[in-house]
Records
---
Amino acid sequence: LAKTTQPISMDSYEGQEVNITCSHNNIATNDYITWYQQFPSQGPRFIIQGYKTKVTNEVASLFIPADRKSSTLSLPRVSLSDTAVYYCLVGEGNQGGKLIFGQGTELSVKP
Amino acid sequence: EAGVAQSPRYKIIEKRQSVAFWCNPISGHATLYWYQQILGQGPKLLIQFQNNGVVDDSQLPKDRFSAERLKGVDSTLKIQPAKLEDSAVYLCASSQYEQYFGPGTRLTVT
């Protein structure tokens, strides 16, 4: 399973767009890229998953370049409630495979 | 749709004691996972079940940890005897496609 690298922490202000980039140089052909969000005292929550190009849902967008060695989670117009830890995972993930969590990125949104 | 249920939510025990955690997955989810999350770290997979069979338990400390999934539905994770380093949040997740996590059980071993 490919290892991922993402910033340990990020700060932002309400209303800004936040982009969290994850590198995964050893991603395999069958691997998907999945992002989870975790609030304190809660289990992680699925945000978005993609294989290539761009995926958008009601919560976020995921940008994946052609070489798939990195990906960027984009959160539009963040609010204080988006303060959480965000995990980038690479693997067969939601296709039934194993998920390996890294340390994640702790996002702090300030007023 | 009801989420993944776990109990208890909190547990404090002394080292060398035993403890058990219970998980009820989302109805219809064939795959069930137990994770251990130490403070400041991401969750680490302990064991994965497909129905009532074990798919992956490579990171389960089998000398002290055990898990079972009754009739392919509920699951229990047991630690016997507990060590100080077992203090963590134990998360249960189930999936049909993406994984849905329960709220976790916070274990403190003193």
---
Amino acid sequence: DADVTQTPRNRITKTGKRIMLECSQTKGHDRMYWYRQDPGLGLQLIYYSFDVKDINKGEISDGYSVSRQAQAKFSLSLESAIPNQTALYFCATSDFRVDEQFFGPGTRLTVL
Amino acid sequence: SQQGEEDPQALSIQEGENATMNCSYKTSINNLQWYRQNSGRGLVHLILIRSNEREKHSGRLRVTLDTSKKSSSLLITASRAADTASYFCATDAGGGGNKLTFGTGTQLKVEL
């Protein structure tokens, strides 16, 4: 969905580095999500946020943190990257009135 | 942890044939959704079926839901090469927030 953007699209980093992935949306949605996808698997929820003041852990939050800077922006940080965090990361949004989620194009992260 | 398991993991058919994918899940749900993912890209919402519905149609898509068996199927009729993608089921267990738990996906290849 072009209304959900992620930066960077690709990133290679080294073990131990701190890295931030950013997500912005112009859909006006209140809810935002971060997922990771490992090869051959479905998506796993890392964190989700219902609004700027409400942030919740998902299934696999260890090693990650998030910041909801504004309704339209939701950032994911890896405080000290490790190789098994190499994955595709997706941001998604939804609105309380509908149940479907709208996904960004993804960030391919490689941790060496 | 994955809520859903999808079957088959991979499916190869000829253009014009029908494709059927199945999803099984573990817990009670509020709704079940199907998403498509083209290689390495973000997911796109296809169709949603609520727990009190048994069948739903959208264009060439037909979804069924059997809550007693905790299973769903997605049928794509008259498949086209452009339908080549991975298909994921995702369950919303309710409780607010549109939190989704994704299955492991079915890779569909439609050959000319």
